[in-house]
Design a protein that fits this description.
Order of helices and strands: H
Shape: elongated
Number of helices: 1
Strand content: under 5%
Helix content: over 70%
Largest sheet: none
Structural class: mainly alpha
Protein name: PsbA
Radius of gyration: 9 Å
Keywords: Chloroplast, Plastid
Length: about 20
């Protein structure tokens, strides 16, 4: 899941920042 780490973080950060 190393190569997917950055992508996963962005996908999880998107909804977090969107509220």
């Amino acid at each position: 899941k190393a190569p997917n780490f950055p992508l996963d973080l962005a996908a999880i950060d998107a909804p977090s920042i969107n509220g």
